[in-house]
Amino acid sequence: MAVLEISDLKKTYNEESDFPVHAVNDVNFIIEKGEFTAIVGPSGSGKSTLLNLMGGLDHPSAGKVVIDGKDISELRDNQLIDFRLHHIGFVFQSFNLIPVLTAKENVSFVMVLQKTPKEERENRAISLLTEVGLEDRLDSRPSELSGGQQQRVAIARALASRPAFVLADEPTANLDSKSASNLLDIMLKLNQEEHMTFIFSTHDSRVIERARRVITLVDGKIVSDKKQDVT
Amino acid sequence: MLTRIAWRNVWRNKVRSLILLCSIALGVWAGIFMLSFSWGMSIQYVNLAIKGQISHIQMHQPEFKQDRKITYTIDDAPGRIQEINSLPGVRASCGRIIISGMISSPTSGAGASISGIDPDQENMVTGMATNVIQGEYFESKKKNQILIGEKLANKLNVKLNNKVVLTFQDIDSHITAAAFRVAGIYKTSNSSTDELNVFVKHAALSPLLGLEEGSVHEIAILLIEGAEMAPIYASLKAKYPALLVEDWKALAPELRLVVDSFRMNMVVFMGIILLALTFGIINTMLMAVLERFHELGVLMAIGMNKFSVFMMIMLETLYLAIIGGICGLLLAYGTIQILGRTGIDLSAFAKGLSAYGMDTLVYPALQNNQYLEIFIMIFIAAILSAIYPAYKALKLNPVQAIRKI
């Protein structure tokens, strides 16, 4: 079952000028439920723009982004925010947790926005933080956690809304190798055991090695789209 | 959760928030204290004028107010005063003969307003006896005693027991003169009236003028403190339809202006202070929003809608402004309570203040409804100062804010 369909997607900056920049150019692919996909490519290849378009953070110049059967390119700003809340989980490169909230509150926050009943969101937040190995840091604020721990809270937060897929932008970029490996183990466990779909951009060869599908972008175009066996 | 995040955000930068809170509190405190000082001074001025001079209500023949002829008298004053004193809410009333004339000493002369009074009645209404600083207040049975103000005594170069001559017209327009001995010298907080008004006994002045016994030009009525004036005023008007009954607001429109214009002054004065504070709050909150642009972008990326972001910034600003405002209000309330009891001594400016009929000890005061009105103004200023930073956050584009996911 497809959770994400990208068809003829284009994003052009400075369209009116003599030198338009085609950041994403005629991109087509489908992501099925349960995939663990890496989007790779050199700097300036359009990875971030593509992730922004897939996450409904930016509007395409042309083409469609269909998530769970809904074409999000037609949605207005407030509708997009609501759509993101219920369908997409985000993990950012620099963690981006809310500094004034504890780990448990950070995970609960998305569910508060979804108006989930208090007891249910408390239980789910504790359960998700336990899954990422932070059951003993529920009441710690981000400043009291290491980078790896913060990124694990970010993953728990991304999963809290029960999204169709999780978009992660270079999730291991700011982590040491041990924390990065630990984080990947958690993401793979969630992917295998709960069939959570992960799409992430990365430069990290250790991450690319463990992805089951690798989409390579160069100058805004897909130059390769390979599935690979992971041991 | 939104209120919790907003509250914790306020304390993310404790020093900045505390500086802002202090500046709001001090601004509000200074504004309210200045208002209470001004209100205290105004109320004292009005009360002094009412208790010492004009009383709450006065009655005259209607023509007397336009043309101060001696013949426009109220007859049977003792009977009427007795009637008036029996009305509920009336503390005391007194009758006065009021004429204009000349007062002369061996060395000098001056124009004067001569009041013929019943000393006991007058003292009940204006407390005149307490103003006597030399001599006595008509205590001896001697004939033709006069009480004059200190300023006038100095001007005429007369002392206690000196003789002065009063010259005035009698009822038949004949010039009449009579010698009076200075029995007492008084001093009130209003040096202008001290220079103009002299007092003699009604019984001494009445025959000189040729007036019937018991005739007066003016009946002044003092009410019990806190008594409502309107019903007493209405009842006097109904009881004496032929007389002109006026309350202090009609008798002294300048006093009414002092009271009535205070509210407008309060709004303008506090408005200016709050406007200045509003810009301070906007500046600080804008700084707080701009340095959290990235974070706000993330919140919108993960699904916090624009209304919630707007409300969160509004709440943060409101917390700061309202806490600062309440601290300022409490600080001002405490200051007013203390200084309202001890008073502020302005005796260094006694001469200038007494020329305007003001006391040198000022008791700051503010009514409860005025505190409420100021709080409402602070609340409105808080909302106004919250709008722009919140609007700025609202215009945020998450992609630009977080650059990339």
Report what the structure shows.
With 231 residues, chain A is an alpha/beta fold. Chain A has helices spanning 47-54, 77-87, 103-113, 118-131, 147-160, 177-194, 205-210; strands spanning 2-13, 21-32, 36-40, 62-67, 70-71, 88-91, 165-169, 198-201, 213-218, 221-227. In chain A, strands 6-7-8-3-9-10 form a six-stranded mixed β-sheet, sandwiched between helices. In chain A, strand 4 (62-67) and strand 5 (70-71) form a beta hairpin. The longest helix of chain A has 18 residues, at 177-194. With 405 residues, chain B is an alpha+beta fold. Chain B is 57% helix and 19% strand. Chain B contains 16 helices and twelve strands. In chain B, the strands form two sheets. A six-stranded mixed barrel of chain B has the order 2-3-8-5-7-6, surrounded by four helices. In chain B, strand 6 (163-169) and strand 7 (175-186) form a beta hairpin. The radius of gyration of chain B is 31 Å and the shape is elongated. The mean pLDDT of chain B is 87. Chain A binds chain B through residues 48, 51-52, 55, 57-58, 77-78, 81-82, 84-86, 90, 92-93, 96, 98-101, 105, 108-110, 112-114, 157, 161, 167, 169, and chain B through 1, 4-5, 8-9, 12, 294-295, 298-306, 308, 398-399, 402, 404-405.
